[in-house]
UniProtKB/TrEMBL annotation:
This is Ribose-5-phosphate isomerase A. Transmembrane segments: none annotated. Pathway: Carbohydrate degradation; pentose phosphate pathway; D-ribose 5-phosphate from D-ribulose 5-phosphate (non-oxidative stage): step 1/1. HAMAP family: Rib_5P_isom_A (MF_00170). It comes from Prosthecomicrobium pneumaticum. The gene is rpiA.
Length: 244
């Protein structure tokens, strides 16, 4: 019997759910794998688990509401115990590319407010070197052309070249994030030094945020056909109140 990608995503989500304990404040990610986590978390909440969540997108907020998951904000709950979110790519050093769903700014804010971040993904997202997936870059609409040009020039200085395109939505119109920004997808290919690229992008005024998540993920649950692999290859430290 073959295992579908959705089955693998669900397996990763359930593995992360075992690290959610009573009374926790959670960051709740966006995307197809995170949606499996939300549905499983909703079932646990309906069984009596007491948690609050901060969603990383309006889409996730709607799904949480449908599942009966109580929500809060980072204004009311500025410190989170754990964030669970997916990734578009993850390398052996737990560096990520995120933003395929267009929520990278809120995802990074929520992850940075958390003690821990568990990434959930199927095995196809684990790569030796980041960059096969186009890097999402969230930019201000003002000065968009100038910002795009500067990204191209500075990335070329790092030896990274390739088309940088404004993302379109399903309707064919330019995609706009929940925060009112555009997304540029940079098709650089292999990114041998993600830290250098992240530092360079951070110097460009029109760049609101980029999809390189470095130093934020503490563990990853990677679901493969033969089971869930944890990165790093050790048992996750379970917080107070988590399931044994």
């Amino acid at each position: 019997m073959t295992t579908s990608s959705e089955d693998l995503k669900r397996s990763a989500a359930l593995a992360a759910l075992d690290h959610v304990g009573e009374g926790m404040a959670l960051g709740i990610g966006t995307g197809s794998t995170a949606a499996h986590f939300v549905r499983a978390l909703g079932a646990r909440v309906r069984d009596g688990l007491g948690i609050v969540g901060v969603p990383t997108s309006e889409e996730t907020a709607r799904l949480c509401a449908a599942e009966g998951i109580p929500l809060t904000t980072l204004d009311d709950t500025p410190h989170l115990h754990l964030t669970v979110d997916g990734a578009d790519e993850i390398d052996p050093a737990l560096r990520l590319i995120k933003g395929g769903g267009g929520a990278l700014l809120r995802e990074k804010i929520v992850a940075a407010a958390s003690d821990r971040m568990i990434v959930i993904a199927d095995g196809s997202k684990a790569v030796p070197v980041l960059g096969t997936f186009p890097l999402p870059i969230e930019v201000n609409l003002f000065g968009l052309g100038a910002t795009l040009r500067e990204i191209g020039l500075l990335s070329a200085e790092l030896g990274l070249e390739g088309p940088i395109r404004r993302r379109l939505g399903r309707d064919g119109e330019p995609f706009v994030t929940d925060g009112g920004h555009a997304i540029l997808d940079a098709c650089f290919g292999r990114i041998p030094d993600p830290e250098a690229l992240a530092a360079t992008l951070n110097t460009i005024p029109g760049v609101v945020e980029h999809g390189l998540f470095i130093g934020l993920a503490t563990q990853a649950a990677i679901a493969r056909t033969d089971g869930v692999e944890w990165l790093p290859a050790r048992e996750a430290n379970r917080p107070h109140g988590a399931r044994p």
